[in-house]
Specification:
The complex is a heterodimer. Chain A is an alpha/beta fold. Chain A is built from six helices and ten strands. By secondary structure, chain B is of the alpha/beta class. In chain B, the strands form five sheets. A five-stranded antiparallel sheet of chain B has the order 2-1-5-4-3. A five-stranded mixed sheet of chain B has the order 7-9-10-12-11. In chain B, strands 14-13-15-18-19 form a five-stranded parallel sheet, with helices on both faces. In chain B, helix 13 links the parallel strand 18 and strand 19. In chain B, about 35% of the residues are buried. The chains are: A alpha/beta, B alpha/beta.
Chain lengths: ~180, ~625
């Protein structure tokens, strides 16, 4: 009888803890998951796809704001049989063999150059830097009312021969730099 | 019988109705079940398709947490009227967004359930994975009702009910038509059978209308009728033959009776003068004693012969049920005593000790005194016959009021009986071995007495039984008789057949007798004997002579034979009584009860059966004269 009471008490306490434990995810935790999920909604042209035995690479250029959240998000995941890996780069020259590149805000000052350099390569370029999509980036994370939203420059993606699923466009804001904000 | 008619009709219609209705109902039920399944499958397929569209569209909005878009996508389900609620769950199965077109508060599961469609009575639920490129990102939940489906099914069921009702009506109509084809021949058959049994006319035949089983039945029935008809005819012939045989037998029996009566008459008639003369001579004091003794022997043997003839006739008559008992209250003690009187002399002669134990109460029963006395006499006589000198005979009567019976026991110390003899002792002509087959004939007799006794006792609703411990150990006869309920005072016992002779007193002419007898030797003997006893006798041989004699001289009493050449004694008696006031005694060889009754009717005072001893005749004369309505003419 006493045992049961103790067990019930312990259970109640642990239930309280469990409920308290999952803190609302941080902004970059969300962004990491979002970033990872692009692999499901974007089609890469065959040459840009990872070669046999090569991993699918998500690169982070500049200071990594995820703090391990991205590694956590891709851990154990695969794309078409290719394991997902995260690589971090200090300069653009180092970026090789990546299908997706997140450009940190730390690189805002040389964003134009980066985008220009990456032109013609089938790399999905994502950033949360301001005006990124309008400035020629493909997908920009925008934080509105504590929610992370997507802003997509379809033309830029198309120029890079990347096919973005129309499904992805539904929860996103599509921009056209030529026409200004759509 | 209308009830049978309606019942068979009703049964047939019922069978047809039930059969068709059950077939239609089962068919309809199967159809309905099939339709329900079909509707469910259609619903499931339909919903899966709708769910596919919604699920495919909701992947990105789920992944990128766009509630507004998710709401829009779910709202697309509005177009399907069956959908009552929908919801999206995230990758972890947590409720993400709900949709309810009807109600503001949709009741959807808090967490995603197992994938698949589930049918409930009125609604269904569907959990469907939401996946992008094979990666599950969430779950879609759709809940709908069968409202429309059920309305359709209800319509369907209504149609089926109408079908069932219509087929019922059709079955009833067709049934009542077809049942006629079955029941009509049956009813026809029944009518024929009733007619046959009512009219006993086996020549009618049932009409065969069909060649099915009923036709077979009709044929079989007709065949049966044919057999009955044939059997009936044969039976009638047998009956006719039996009737003929019976009539012949009755005629033969009557002829036999007549023959027996005639035989007895003819046998007795010659005995009459012998007995008269012998008894007269034996009682004649003028004769020397040794001669008288011889005459006495003659008398005894003639009486024995007459008794044998009587027994033979009795046996025949009793066996044929021709004996009518004259029932009157009878004192059994008195009857036993009277029976003993006739054998006293024999008992004393042997000598045998006689022990008499008569019940002091009044053992009175209803019966024929003469016959009962005959029974006791037979049994006692039997005991005397088989008991050697120095033996003992015990005669006892016992009242058994508790059983309403009385018993007469006659026990002797005689030669006894073996078991085989006991078994046959009451059979006619069956004397024990000691008496018959051994050839000694020491005891004589035909063995009729006990057979007659048993018959008479049984006629009185009694029983007679014999017992013996074996050869030379004596025998005991027990006669068990019903006690008279009324217990009325017994009538004086009828006069015994033979009584010790009394010498006629006086020397003067005692009376004038008209003797009518056609048998000349008898007439002459009687005349002679009566005259010797100082009666004045006028004799006649025919009716005419008798009339003349009666007219010619004064006569006190008529003693007449019955069978006369020109008429009978009855006529004569009636005539002479009416004309001259005569009393009369019938003296005839005809001893049948009917003859006695006719004598009574013809107002004879007494009916005597030949042969008759002189003493008995004298007694009768005295009694008749005493009863005469007026003193004899001087």
């Amino acid at each position: 009888m006493r045992c049961w009471l103790l067990a019930a008490l312990l259970l109640a306490v642990s239930a309280e803890r469990l409920r308290a434990q999952p803190h609302p995810p941080t902004e970059y935790q969300i962004k990491a998951v979002f970033l990872y999920n692009f692999v499901h909604f974007v089609d890469w042209p065959p040459p840009a796809q990872p070669h046999q035995g090569q991993p699918f690479c998500i690169g982070v250029l500049g200071t990594d704001p995820f703090g391990g959240a991205l590694d956590q998000a891709v851990r154990g995941e695969t794309v078409n049989g290719h394991p997902l890996v995260v690589r971090r780069f200090r300069s653009l020259d180092e970026v090789r063999g990546c299908q997706m590149l997140f450009v940190s805000r730390s690189e805002s000052w040389r964003m134009d150059r980066i985008l220009r350099e990456l032109q013609g390569q089938s790399i999905l370029v994502v950033s949360d830097a301001e005006h990124f999509a309008l400035d020629g980036g493909m997908i920009q994370f925008v934080t509105e009312n504590n929610k992370v939203r997507l802003r997509i420059n379809v033309l830029a993606a198309r120029a890079a021969k990347l096919a973005i699923s129309s499904k992805l466009l539904r929860p996103s804001e599509v921009v056209d730099p030529a026409a200004g904000r759509s | 019988m209308p009830s049978a008619e309606t019942s068979i009709k009703r049964k047939l219609v019922k069978v047809i109705l039930l059969t068709s209705l059950s077939v239609v109902s089962v068919t309809c039920l199967l159809l309905l079940t099939y339709e329900i399944r079909r509707y469910r499958e259609a619903t499931a397929n339909n919903l899966s398709t709708v769910g596919d569209v919604v699920a495919v569209n909701s992947t990105a909005v789920l992944v990128y947490d766009d509630q507004k878009s998710a709401q829009e996508i779910l709202s697309a389900l509005r177009v399907d009227p069956r959908v009552t609620a929908a919801a999206l769950y995230d990758k972890q199965g947590r409720l993400y967004i709900t949709f309810a077109p009807g109600s503001a508060q949709p009741s959807v599961p808090a967490a995603a359930g197992r994938d698949g469609i589930q049918f409930h009575l009125l609604r269904f639920t569907l959990f469907r994975p939401v996946a992008q490129r094979g990666v599950r990102v969430g779950t879609l939940y759709i809940e709908g009702n069968f409202g429309g489906t059920y309305r359709q099914l209800l319509l369907y069921a209504l149609v089926l009910v109408v079908v069932v009702a219509l087929s019922g009506v059709a079955a009833a109509i067709l049934g009542s038509y077809f049942q006629r084809r079955i029941s009509e021949p049956l009813l026809d058959l029944a009518r024929t059978a009733r007619q046959v049994s009512k009219d006993r006319n086996y020549s009618v035949r049932a009409r065969k209308v069909s060649s099915d089983e009923i036709g077979d039945l009709t044929e079989a029935f007709n065949a049966m009728l044919g057999q009955i008809q044939a059997g009936h005819a044969a039976q009638r012939e047998v009956e006719k033959a039996l009737t003929k045989a019976r009539d012949e037998a009755v005629a033969a029996s009557r002829a036999k009776d007549d023959f027996l009566a005639a035989l007895s008459h003819e046998l007795r008639t010659p005995l009459n003068p012998v007995l008269l003369l012998a008894s007269d001579a034996a009682a004649n004091p003028a004769l020397p004693p040794n001669l008288r003794s011889d005459f006495e022997t003659i008398r005894k043997n003639v009486e024995l012969e007459a008794r044998l003839i009587d027994d033979l006739l009795d046996l025949t008559r009793i066996a044929r049920g021709k004996v009518l008992l004259e029932r009157r209250p009878v004192d059994v003690n008195a009857a036993v005593r009277d029976a003993l009187v006739t054998v006293e002399a024999e008992i004393a002669a042997k000598p045998i000790e006689l022990v008499l134990e008569l019940d002091p109460g009044q053992p009175v029963m209803s019966g024929d005194a003469t016959r009962l006395q005959q029974v006791f006499w037979n049994v006692i006589k039997n005991a005397v016959k088989f008991t050697p000198p120095g033996g003992r005979i015990r005669v006892a009567t016992r009242l058994r009021p508790e059983r309403r019976r009385l018993e007469v026991e006659i026990a002797d110390t005689g030669i006894g009986m073996t078991d085989a003899e006991i078994a046959r002792v009451f059979e006619a002509f069956a004397q024990g071995d000691h008496a018959g087959a051994s050839g000694s004939h020491r005891f004589g007799g035909l063995g009729l007495g006990l057979a007659i006794s048993r018959m008479v006792v049984e006629l009185h609703a009694g029983r007679i039984s014999a017992a013996s411990d074996g050869r030379d150990r004596g025998a005991t006869f027990l006669i068990d008789l019903p006690l008279d309920r009324s217990r009325a005072a017994p009538a004086p016992p009828a006069p015994a057949g033979t009584q010790p002779a009394n010498d006629p007193p006086g020397a003067a002419i005692r009376c004038r007798i008209l003797l009518v007898e056609d048998h000349a030797p008898t007439r002459a003997t009687m005349e002679h004997v009566l005259r010797r006893r100082r009666y004045e006798v006028t004799s006649a041989g025919s009716l005419a002579e008798a009339r003349a004699a009666a007219a010619a001289g004064p006569v006190d009493i008529l003693i007449s034979d019955i069978g006369l050449p020109d008429g009978n004694g009855y006529e004569l008696m009636t005539e002479l009584r009416d004309r001259h006031g005569l009393v009369g005694i019938a003296l005839t060889g005809f001893g049948m009860p009917t003859d006695v009754a006719r004598s009574d009717q013809a107002s004879f005072f007494q009916h005597l059966t030949k042969p008759v001893g002189i003493d008995l005749l004298e007694k009768a004369i005295a009694a008749a004269l005493a009863s005469a309505p007026r003193p004899p003419r001087g």
